[in-house]
Amino acid sequence: MKKFWYISVLAGVLVLSACSETEPSEQSQPQNPQAEQPQAEEPQMEEPQQEEEPQVEEEPQAEQPVEEPQEAVDEGMPPTAKEAATTVLRALKSGDMETVAAWAHPERGVRFSPYAYIDPKKDQVLTREEMSDVMSSNTARKWGEFAGSGKEIELTYADYHEKFVYDANFFDDAEVGLNKSLGEGTTVNNLNEVYPKETHDFVEYHIEGVNPEYGGVDWRSLRLVFEKNGMDRSLVGIVHDEWTP
After folding, report:
1. What pTM, to 2 d.p., does this model score?
2. What range does the record give for the signal peptide (predicted)?
3. Ranges assigned E (strand) in the chain
4. Deepest in the core among 24, 26, 67, 162, taking most CB within 10 A?
5. What pLDDT does 187 receive?
């Protein structure tokens, strides 16, 4: 009996022990206070700074070429004798013989006379084709005779041009006359006999004197003779004149 009671007590103890192990008690579990997790700091989004646009240095603009004022047109349509002469004289001043050749008579060419007296037999005549490049020619031509000595004038065109064509600043300094001789010396002027006024016009450029010390005896004249072709004109003569002994 005693043994039975002991067994019963032992069994009860075992049952209670088993129950205590199987039923978890909230209180039996250790209440570990949870450490407060540090809150991750939210990264502050930095506002993107606007990048300063690089200042582009302006490239220096190329200087625009300054257009030189064009020379006033000297010719009408058709040109007058003075207008035609102005164009030819400007070309003679610069040595532009291509322009002079463009005005030359296509058949007669241009006769060059070193003095007022025009000698159709001895004065040199150049065709339009010859005149185009005559300034660069090394060929010496016979242009007539020197006044006073009678010695033959044998020169290249470039030398003749310097002595018997544009030997003074006719373009800027001369008095201008139409069909009228302004310079008169001892040499006979037979221009209207060789170039009749009914069919020709001439424009004269006259300078009273180049050097004031000479008292006017170094005057110069240049006469440009044009044949009338209806309303148009063609250059047929370049006559140089000066004081002669």
Report:
1. 0.69
2. 1-20
3. 110-113, 124-126, 140-145, 152-156, 175-178, 200-207, 220-229, 232-242
4. 162
5. 86
